[in-house]
Every structure is written in C-alpha cells, then in structure tokens.
C-alpha cells in the first residue's frame, strides 16, 4: 500500500511524498521537469526490500515553494524527509536530482548509502561553455515569464530534434511540463558550473555512480560520452566511489534493472557492485 503525506521543511515549505514498504529507508530524488512521476514505477519494486519514499521536489507537483530559491533549501527538504523516515536513509538521485543528492551528502545529511544515475555535469571545455550559455538564456527567459520557451531551450540543449521541439506543445503532457519550467533554474543551481570536486571529496558514504549503456534518441546532444565523462569525474572525486555501467539502459532506465541494482548495492547482496574505482558492466 502506498501512503501519501507531507513534511514541513525548515523554511516552512510543505513537501509532498509517497511512501511504501518496510525495511531500510530509501529516498528517491527526481531530475529535471519531473514531479516525482519518473521514479514512481520504482516504488512498488523497491518496497519489497525498503521503506521507500518518492517525493516531489519543491515547486513541483503537490509540493510548495518558498522564494528565493537556494540549493540549501532543497537539502533541507531532503533532510526533513529523512527525519520523517527515522533519521537516516539511503538516497538514489537521478540526473539533476543526483547532483542534489551529492550536494546533500557533501553537506553532511544523514545518508547511509548514495547512488546517482547520469548526473549531467559539464566536464569538457566545450560542454562547460554551452552550459553557461544555456543558464544565461534560461535565466532571461524565466525572468520574462516565457515558460514554454524555457522548456524548448532545455529540450534543445538536451539534444532533442527541431521536429520534437516543435511538436512538444501539442502533447497532452505539455501543460504539466510547462508548469515545471521555473524549476529548470533550480536544477541548474544544483549542477552549478560543473563537478564540485572539492565538496565531493568530503563525502564519506558508500557511493555508486551509474550510467546507462545506450544512447537515448531524445537526448542525442548528451550521449553517449557526456554522462560517462561526468560520472567518471564524480567517481574520481568521491573517496571509494564505485562506478558502473548499467548495460542496455538509456537516460530513463527500466525500473526493474534499477531496482535490482539498488537492492544489491544498498544491502550488500551478491548483486552489488564489487569493483572500486573502475567501471563494471551489468
């Protein structure tokens, strides 16, 4: 059974979540333009082994928002959820949600184990230049209230084709996606200007850094090397981090493959990653 609830963060913002299962607590952190729906299929699978909590980050879905935005406020949201679950938890973060999870671990949140999937930090000089241009353009569009244009800009940076971008507003999901446009700035803040090497070096928790092995046709501008370069850089910074390629998976991986991987890593079962400091395919 899935339970729905809300916690109150330190600044008074109410954060909506769903919880299911029993066992070690595990919090799922979503990425860009996501209100918790992307991780929802993981909940019943992980609930077999964990007390799993999937939530809508601030400004998304049923969660509130309190300006001005600060990454520290999102860390406090995660801390409030962990406190609700008993004071400590494992954390799995996807895409920009992985960047938030890494920042929380570096800041000392009560995280027992951490896994992140395809965090899109820019690493190369060209990628960093493109990222800065994107953030500048995004800031201007959101300041002008041009939410649709902001989403289209994001899609273009991610590598969507002109045809896909032109057709997106006709999708029945478009109003929901457009409403999330302001949170693109939140994701950009979590990612900063690149891999925060000094902060990540202070993480003292078991950490798994994962990428998929298949390019996503809707994110051609960021695959295959973009996510791999970022993951390699993160794994090189976090002491003892484990690096793995989840074979056959794209930027939105199959829930079953992810659930098996997380169960193995967080419980130390035979399916867990064994190598430290090098890639393994699974």
TrEMBL record:
Instruction: Please give one Gene Ontology molecular function term for this protein.
Output: catalytic activity
Q: Which domain of life is it from?
A: Bacteria
> Lineage of this protein's species?
Bacteria, Bacillati, Actinomycetota, Actinomycetes, Pseudonocardiales
Q: Matching Gene3D superfamilies, A to Z?
A: alpha/beta hydrolase
Q: Where would I find the AB hydrolase-1 domain in this sequence?
A: 39-260
In its UniProt entry, what is this protein called?
Answer: Pimeloyl-ACP methyl ester carboxylesterase
